[in-house]
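S., here's the first fold you wanted:
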Amino acid sequence: MSILLKNGSLKGEKNVDILIEKDLIVKVAPGNSIKDDKAEVFDLTGLIVLPGLVDLHTHLREPGREDAETVATGSAAAARGGFTAVHAMANTLPVADTAGVVEQVWNLGRKVGLVDVYPIGAVTVGLKGENLAELSAMAESTARVRIFSDDGFCVSDSILMRRALEYVKAFDGVIAQHAQDPRLTQNAQMNESELSGKLGLTGWPAVAEEAIVARDVLLTEHVKSKLHICHASTAGTVEILRWAKEKKVNVTAEVTPHHLFLSEVHCQSYDAKFKVNPPLRTDKDIQELRKALAQGVIDVVATDHAPHPTEDKEGEWSSSSFGMTGLETALSVVATAMVETKLMSWSDVARVMSEKPAEIGQLSDHGRPIAENELANLCIVDPKVSWKVDAHDTQSLSSNNPFHDMTLKSKVVHTIFRGKFTMKSGQVQK
């Protein structure tokens, strides 16, 4: 059966009708102009139509930590959040450092069929930072890996980082760096500041991130490769990225929804749902990150969706795991932080949450124009809704959502993946 979407606001700019047959958009026309008696009709009056969202940074935990998340539950959370493609990070058990593991994740994603799951390969064997992993084998596998990251760990060895940047040039790959000097962050618990001293928590200095970003920008410029900075979190990182863009270094960067919205002040509660890597920073950092995203200095929003079972997050702060969930709330957080504040338009949201991430990940089926003969990957949003987050109302296996009980603006109501509803009226279609 075909689907007819009536009178939706295309990226918040003009009202259109969209006719979908099988997996393709077959017609786009002015609002309330298409008639098709055989189609299932949905009135989208007052709703925003965006291309399906793309996440460059998702932890699906499978294989190895299926108690926290699986490809199936993570895919369901992604569909509920408006995503049609996610990139699964390499810090699984076993680590995604071989063709066999990335193909396992790739096949699991295809079997679930709610989103396209693209594995990210490890840069080094076992994420240990000692020897390069099988980068070429992963790139040539059925998963066709193009992004490599030791996420959770930094590739701190400069020689090794240079070799990785040089190696991936052969297949136009990109190194996604978790910028964190391991010596400067040893035993670190939260942002280094006056507040960390008051709370008695070991500080995580901004310079630990900025020093690695600066080094990697220079290395990338030197070897003429591609670098992506994961979860930028400081005003200093923004300054370095701005310089790098002016120098036309081939570097891109992401910011998470939580670093756009939450500050170190939330750590005062000692509630470990606010414990994250890199840590929540200051209000000044938040404002600079927002400005950088609006200006294109930071290219994309990525969730760093990091589910953990209850026992890993409800102990004392120092023994709790780093990370928070984010797939189901990402669009709403960005809308609240950036659209409601007039820093960005809905067209900008499409750019930073779909078009640019798909470009960085080299995805041919996502981040595409909403136009005839394009795959029907769509995210449909109600911009008028205000809603209170309930961390326990989730498709994820984990409920470590830092936005619990907070009120956010805008909400995803439908997700269409390859012409089929994966979420309809707020309900995931498994």
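And the second, which I think is the more interesting of the pair:
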Amino acid sequence: MKKAARNILLYSLFINLIACTSNGKKDTKMKEKNISDILGNPDYLAISYGGYRTDSRRVQPAMEQLKEDMKILAAMGIKIIRTYNVHMPHAVNVIKAIDELKKEDKNFEMYVMLGAWIDCKNAWTGFEPIHEEESERNAIEIEQAVQLANEHPDIVKVISVGNEAMVKWATAYFVSPIVILKWVNYLQDLKQENKLPKDTWITSSDNFASWGGGEDSYKGEELTALMKSVDYISIHTYPMHDTHYNPIFWGVSTEEEHLSNKSKIDSSMQRAAEYAQSQYYSVKDYMLSLGIDKPIHIGETGWASYCNGMYGNEGSMACDEYKEGLFYKLLRAWTKKEGIACFYFEAFDEVWKDSDNPNGSENHFGLITIDGKVKFALWDLVDQGAFDGLRRGVNPITKTFEGNQDSLLNQVKLPPLKEVLIPEYQTQ
């Protein structure tokens, strides 16, 4: 009896050991996050991502290059990235890269806001764009996005219908809100029919004015219906561009002339951040005035580190690494505090954006250069060892200017005096 009892006891302990081991494995398996737990979570930073490393999108990043980038972004605390279209292999390959990394490391975590490109009839054809009609290819783009979301529900958490597709200065391709509404409703219907994961949030990412935060010409029944249909509103705000187009917040005032040069710059950048905030809240105020209450997140904002044109040293003197770094830190601090997701534009420089002008601002919005040099905005992460052991291509992750802040500041220009910059504007 004693032997039998002992055997029973040993068997029981064995079973418990197996159970504990099994539970241990289960406990270490990453719990899948809902998008409501991701957007606006300060531990889940967002960023816009393009992995192109040459002056042409015909040269697609290799899988190892994409995985390399995902590891760098993860080291930055990024947990959700934004892509822009599915008609090129890039977005598909990004998702594949994330999927492979998740299989290699059960603790790797990265999600995707998947962009579906939307444009009007005759866009990019050489013929006159017909803004009241849509491109026949829009349907294909949407279906490809649906397919990817269904194949990878653990990765694709948001589908954005269009990118700046409603703002009227996008003269080559913009459409009316009714086109965006059509596809948003289509995707929402698919969720109801269990043909798309119910946790997939649907939005459209567009300029703040397109969402009713600016001139009245954008406001109307179609926009109201769209606001009601999306799961959240995704807005773009770019104070950097308005240092030229509407510089009411930019420049050094006479009251600031006694300040140090650094303080003058810091003060200008603080106003730039407040300007971005005001555009965000203008959309929120308009939304609430319609009796609608849903999340608003930032689909894009950013600041170029160099420009040889209207935002550079021959123009509004806005673009350099120091100002870019200040804007990044100010926007991250504000959005974290307020629980706003900010898909900061962008992770890496992409020189295809203005291939005819290598020094154009569009090529210099990245926080990291193509060859793996971290700009001023992220120098502190290098100091903390966040990128130790990581490379971009053959290059280890290092600081620009060799980390010398004096060298950095030597090339920073003061914003112009307000009365010189904007004599036609009423200064504030």
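Why I say that: The chain has one domain: 40-245+267-307+318-401. The first helix runs from residue 2 to 28.

Talk tomorrow,
H.
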